Amino acid sequence: MSILSDFLREVDEGYAVINISGRVVYANDFMIKRGILKKDWEGKPYYECFNMLSFVSAIAECIAEKKRIKTLVEHEDVGYSVDLFPAKDGILLRITDITQLKRYERSKKEFIANVSHELKTPITIIKSILETLIEEEQDEKKKNMLERALRRSEDMKSLVEDLLIITKLESGEEKLGKESVNLWEVVELVFDDIMEMAQDKKVQLINRVDKSFKVYADQEKLTLLLLNLVDNGVKYNKMNGEVVVNAYIQDTYAVIEVSDTGIGIPKEHLPFVFERFYRVDSSRSKEVGGTGLGLSIVKHIALSHGGKVQVESKEGEGSRFRVFLPLK
Ligand SMILES: Nc1ncnc2c1ncn2[C@@H]1O[C@H](COP(=O)(O)OP(=O)(O)OP(=O)(O)O)[C@@H](O)[C@H]1O
Ligand SMILES: [Mg+2]
């Protein structure tokens, strides 16, 4: 036991135990040193001992729901990851300092934002020079090479644009112009954009949205969200497949559904597909091109509207993405 208490005293994590009657009966030094608990905590009710209200509400939730709770508590520049384990005779609280991790994440995002910003102008210049050269070039072989270079610079341009959109959405800097939008019309516009690619694969695009269905959204962002989902629906489909867009009301949300009859996503990959740069397997993704930012943009657009996204999929059969947007 003394090894355990020595360890708990030295360790760079916070531990506390709250008994069944809601009193703090154990806390290690970390909890006091970091100012998480007041000095005279011993035997007092938990809601009188914690300095930050977020801890109190997390503990209250754990007591009420009797289930393990994981949450983040942020205070000024400091961030804590909080883990609460309910047991028969009380609750164990574990706190990890994630301030460094947060700083690292922030500087990574700033770095990406700055690099993307700096690349935008040179790429636009390279693109327009290549376009002029292609127009003037008579030699077929050289023209071919220039066209290849142009396609790669277009890929670079869309990568940089995607990164800039994500950066803006994440920072909350991008203001949404929400209005009542006719979803059927937006879906038709998106289908027009994707039509050529769909025809190449003989994939049918089906708009099942009711012509009077309205969503409360930023029209431009909503279009971008649907473009990414329908683009994936076609890109990861089989020849002669289908992509169907549908919408309905569920509780306080307008739900937009994009389903396809494509190759599907293996179960183990599903939790990660909305992460930046995540691509299911490089061999199948390489054939179709892309950077793995599309679904991350979809997620951020939904979140910035106060909504959420869900996916279900069966390998070999197809996928269904659902976007929930709060009603006005
Ligand atoms: N409808 C779908 N069916 C099967 N797999 C999908 C589907 N949508 C996404 N995926 C998988 O999830 C990965 C991430 O999708 P995401 O749209 O973020 O990136 P991407 O399509 O590879 O590139 P881009 O940035 O051009 O959209 C894809 O690489 C693909 O493997
Ligand atoms: Mg995509």
TrEMBL record:
Which organism's genome codes for this protein?
Hydrogenobacter hydrogenophilus
Q: Keywords in UniProt for this one?
A: ATP-binding, Cell membrane, Kinase, Membrane, Nucleotide-binding, Phosphoprotein, Transferase, Two-component regulatory system
Q: What is the lineage of its organism?
A: Bacteria, Pseudomonadati, Aquificota, Aquificia, Aquificales
Q: Please provide, in alphabetical order, the Gene Ontology terms of the cellular component aspect for this entry.
A: membrane raft; plasma membrane
What catalytic reaction does the record list? ATP + protein L-histidine = ADP + protein N-phospho-L-histidine
State the EC number(s). 2.7.13.3
Which part of the chain is the Histidine kinase domain?
114-328
Where in the cell does this protein reside? Cell membrane; Membrane raft
How would you classify this enzyme at the top EC level?
A: transferase
Q: How is this protein situated with respect to the membrane?
A: Multi-pass membrane protein
Domain of life, per lineage: Bacteria
Protein name (record): histidine kinase
Q: What InterPro entries has UniProt attached to this entry? A: BphY/WalK/GraS-like, HATPase_C_sf, HATPase_dom, His_kinase_dom, HisK_dim/P_dom, HisK_dim/P_sf, Sig_transdc_His_kin-like_C
Q: PANTHER family annotated for this entry?
A: PHOSPHATE REGULON SENSOR PROTEIN PHOR
Q: One MF term in GO for this entry?
A: phosphorelay sensor kinase activity
Q: Name one GO biological process term.
A: cellular response to phosphate starvation
